[in-house]
Amino acid sequence: MSTTQRVAFELDEPRFKELIVLISELCADDPTYGSVKLNKILYFADFMAYRELGKPITGATYFKLAEGPAPRRLLAARRALVEEGRLAIEHRPYFQGVQKRPTVVGPGSQRELFSDDELHIVTAIVEYFRGKSARDVSDISHREPGWILAEEREDIPYETAWLSQDPVDQTDEAIARQMADSYFR
Fold first, then answer.
1. Residue 135 backbone phi and psi in degrees, to 5
2. 106-143 residue pLDDT tens
3. Is 89 helix (H, G, I), strand (E, B) or coil?
4. What's the CA gap between 137 and 135, in Å, rounded?
5. Diameter over CA atoms, the chain
6. Coil, helix or strand for 114?
7. Distance separating alpha carbons of residues 185 and 180, to the nearest angstrom
8. For the packed helices 74-83 and 13-26, what is the interaxial angle rounded to 10 degrees?
9. d(Cα 111, Cα 87) in Å, to the nearest integer?
10. Are 40 and 140 in contact (CB under 8 A)?
11. Which of 167, 126, 161 is nearest to 46 (CA)?
12. pLDDT given for residue 5 in this prediction
């Protein structure tokens, strides 16, 4: 996917790490929570915040993987949280594989780093995905236009948060044509 101009955000590493801790706290009682689900919750939280608030929560760069979008810096941030004694990665049997489950073991999240609107977005996404398997969450992410349009391992631009897979009805098409005519004539 190529575009001529993209909105660029800088990763706020402390907020990114705190969001990982917060999501792990919120998902502590969800037996389906693991690293795959963490990737998707981070993605949807940042992209929904961009769409609703005008900027992502963390500014992380996401890229396309076979299982869905993932933040490029997740492994480094997760490793740092483990080294800091705030997070552990439990390995649990999960279907025919092993679930890598981030678990909070040290101080809890610093929720004051997030606005009420950001906390609402994160909580809503966690609740939406609660109980859904990693496969279900990946399948949902595969319907995201940004993931569909990107090549394997390519960055997914935040602007794709505005794209929709919904079909355009005749009324919407007529309004769009009328607007285009008024702006481009």
1. -65, -45
2. 889 999 999 999 999 999 999 999 999 999 999 999 99
3. strand
4. 6
5. 62
6. coil
7. 8
8. 80
9. 16
10. yes
11. 161
12. 61
pLDDT value for 2: 47
Residue 99's alpha-carbon distances to 27, 68, 69, 90, 108, in angstroms, are 14, 16, 18, 8, 22
Measured on CA atoms in the order 68, 72, 74, 76, is the torsion positive or negative?
A: positive
In the chain, where the domains are located: 13-184
Report residue 42 as tokens.
Answer: 């981070």
Residues in the chain predicted with pLDDT less than 50, given as ranges, are: 1-4
Residue 79 amino acid letter: R
Task: State residue 113 phi and psi, 5-degree precision.
Answer: -75, -10
As given in the structure block, the two tokens for residue 3 are: 């575009």
pLDDT at residue number 4 = 47
- Per the CB < 8 A criterion, the answer to whether 103 and 88 are in contact is yes
